[in-house]
Design goal:
The protein is mostly helical. 81% of the residues lie in helices and 0% in strands. The two termini are 29 Å apart.
Length: 125
């Protein structure tokens, strides 16, 4: 499989990120927030398992696995639940403005979970 150029990957990510809010609004028209979160988290877990199986890398050491699990819960399931509740309560447009700061908060708070310093380039970015 050929590598995707970084600029194309960034455009695809931006499109997917921006479409998450309206899609969540449509999903919540038929499902309660926790039900929608279960479907989204379940599909994401299946996709992650497929990617992990294809890579066939060795398992991380216990300390790293704990950190990865914590990041997965905070940036995965809890984010999806919070996003669903926010869209349900305030609508897709308002939620997208507020949660658009998520990547910034993720970078700034990750050192607390990872125990690693943030580089200057990450802060500037």
């Amino acid at each position: 499989m050929a590598a995707v150029p970084a600029s194309l990957a960034m455009v695809i990510t931006a499109l997917l990120w921006g479409s998450a809010y309206p899609v969540t609004g449509f999903l919540l028209a038929d499902l309660p927030p926790m039900g929608a979160a279960a479907w989204r988290a379940g599909l994401a877990a299946i996709a992650l398992a497929i990617v992990a199986r294809r890579r066939r890398e060795r398992l991380p050491e216990r300390r790293s696995a704990t950190r990865l699990a914590m990041l997965g819960v905070l940036g995965g399931a809890l984010l999806i639940i919070a996003l669903n509740v926010a869209v349900e309560l305030t609508g897709a447009s308002l939620t997208s403005f507020v949660t658009g700061t998520y990547p910034i908060w993720a970078v700034l708070l990750a050192p607390l979970v990872l125990g690693e310093a943030i580089g200057g380039q990450a802060i500037v970015a």
